[in-house]
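FAQ
Q: What does a multi-component entry look like?
A: The components come first, one per line:
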Amino acid sequence: MGLNASFEPHPDLEPLRFLLGTWRGEGAGGYPTIDPFTYGEEMRFEDVGDRYLLYGQSSWTLDGGDPVHFERGFLRPGTDAGSVELTLAHPLGLAEVGEGRVDATTMSIESDRVTRTGTGDAVTALRRRYVVRGDVLTYEIDMAMDETAMTRHLTAELRRTEP
Amino acid sequence: MGLNASFEPHPDLEPLRFLLGTWRGEGAGGYPTIDPFTYGEEMRFEDVGDRYLLYGQSSWTLDGGDPVHFERGFLRPGTDAGSVELTLAHPLGLAEVGEGRVDATTMSIESDRVTRTGTGDAVTALRRRYVVRGDVLTYEIDMAMDETAMTRHLTAELRRTEP
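Then the predicted structure of the entire assembly, as tokens:
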């Protein structure tokens, strides 16, 4: 016994369905305070039959498979058509709340409410943009920190490996 | 290629290792504003070789397996021995940052920084207590909302099904 896998998709999720599935690929990162780096990544957007999607991301070093980063959270429609809300946890001692828009197969989210634990990273805001073209997903993430204004942090290109 | 599954556990995680594994069982919920309910649940604490654990929880109705709730996030040691930090996302439009203590096989966490999306639930704080005895995990979660002071919300008993 567990979660029922046979359900009717929630009609409010229609605008987000282009994201569904498992995506794998590679990305590149940088920031004024760190050396540039590359990573392998798997991302998953999952429908469980309620009015939200489960979102998860895992990334690793390309030369040894060591953990780079994880994100775990949820996407759901907001108040009006095309709006989207994000709640997200990071292992860096950060929790993120974002709001944005979906336009066809592009999703843009601004997270200016980032809270942190006592030892959490000094991130203050994130700006996310995901674009899907067929079975290719590209994204760009900008980040602001206590001492650094909003700056490009990550770009990646992933391919859908499972629906 | 993906995450390397063979790694040395991070020594700082030693105090949290009693949580590791997959746990399944049942719980009961209530709150002044809702009818009492019961649920099935699976919870997982996962080590990926870095200085944090991945935490996830899924719950469902006992009569049909419909989704009840999900939590996705991370636990990591804080600044001093026995301290623990939690970052967590909920599908209810909530993100949570908590801090607490681990004492042998009891973990207590207070989350008084809960942020919400525009349509997020009116939760303001959570108090969590997890106790492991052998292969049995019990927990109690209290919740405060805009209009309701901190009140018992959930209790559950789970058994470890995988290490």
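Q: Is there any commentary attached?
A: Sometimes. For this entry: The domain at 37-162 of chain A is CATH 2.40.128.20 (Lipocalin).
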